[in-house]
Amino acid sequence: MITAIVLIQATAESIPEAAQAIADIDGVQEVYSCAGDVDLIAHVKVAKHEDLAELVPGRISKVPGVLNTDTHIAFRSYSRRDAEESFSIGLD
User: What are the sequence ranges of the domains in the chain?
Assistant: First the structure.
């Protein structure tokens, strides 16, 4: 699976509707509204790069109110749970 974070700029008046429309797109896991340089952040998971190439410019960018997207592909994920599991190996 390919994980990507999509930073989205949208018109202020369209943020709630755009966020929900993006959240309803297959491959989008979650959408967050936020403060700062971007208005929305979408967490995306797809099977292959071609799916990502279709999803962002083909679907997300075409949602009414979306002005710009900036996509970041994740190489690896880290979490507290991963660290805790690695230290508990063989302790049972």
Answer: 2-87
